[in-house]
Amino acid sequence: MRVSTVRAVNRLTARWAGALPPGRDTVLSASGVWPLLAFLADGAAGPARTELEDALGMPADRAAGAARELLAALARVPGVGSAVGLWTRPWVRPRDSWAAGLPEATLGRLGADDAESKRLLDAWAAERTGGLIPAVPVRVTEETDLVLATAQAVRTSWLRPFVEGGMLPDSGPWAERALAALHRTTGLLDRVGVAETDAGPLTVLRVLGSTGVDVHLLLGPEEAECGAVLKAGVGVLAGTFRTVPGDLLPLGEPGPGLNVRHVRGTSREPYLSVTTSPFSLTAEHDLTALHELFGLTTARDGTVGHFPGVCDVPPLSVRQADQAAMARFGAKGFEAASVRSACPPGPRRRRRTWSAASTSTSTGPSAS
Fold first, then answer.
1. Which tens digit of pLDDT belongs to each residue from 268-302?
2. What is the C-alpha separation between 356 and 28, in angstroms, rounded?
3. Most CB within 10 Å of its CB: which of 16, 62, 119, 172?
């Protein structure tokens, strides 16, 4: 996987995080949206192609190849699944050159009626995500002529599991409430660090998975919005902000939720004691509400076709685009998945329509 692709996906993640509405928990993934946009750009023309290139941060003639490399690289990671699917009505004939660029795609026909089509798509999503996402968030109607889907999911177990317990915070929004908690102690102080970011000081805890997949828990200032914390966290992982490791932090409270102090004990060896919360998040996102961010502004215009590289008849456009995502962090491990869909407008026999969906790994405000 090329560094330029990783940077492009990270940029989309950061931009998306920065555009999140304030005041709510959420989970999202750009690692599945980016390949989907790349395949769309590969078949697009005119202003729609230009806008998709801007969202991707890469020319369309390079993006599809980069997306194939990205999906292949993810599929090689143990515990990570990746897949592509394409379904059409009998009268829709995608161009062979475009369809051939979809890596190891499942090719099929939409069902005899809308309900059957939806069952086909949902069964594929459930299979490809191991049941983490049971349904594709696409509304199949008689106007839906083509569905493109990419699927990804991730599962990993911790190298060292947490111990389940409880906690009673003395400050913050959950002060004086009995909460479920996870506890762990380690002598590896560099598992935690503090970075000064645009969102303020950020405490970063790295939790190692047994499959080579690591999860980074981010804790920002109490007044910081989750989107700002996630955006800053992407910058930390990309090296934009310098992180001071735990063994170099000063005494006191160098970062949110972090206390460095001397304690009495039988050993002089330093240690890191971690208390965090398990979480299970689900969220839905309307991608058309951020059509400029995802390069879908012109593509939503159903009066003309914008994807002649996909097929000439029917002319294709995009109107509906949604994401359903989940992430679960527990004592023994982490799992996450997401499904994206996009569906164009157009009455039957006047203007044909299509949809695109993807399932992928996801990140939330407390994990990246």
1. 899 999 999 999 999 888 888 999 999 999 999 98
2. 17
3. 16
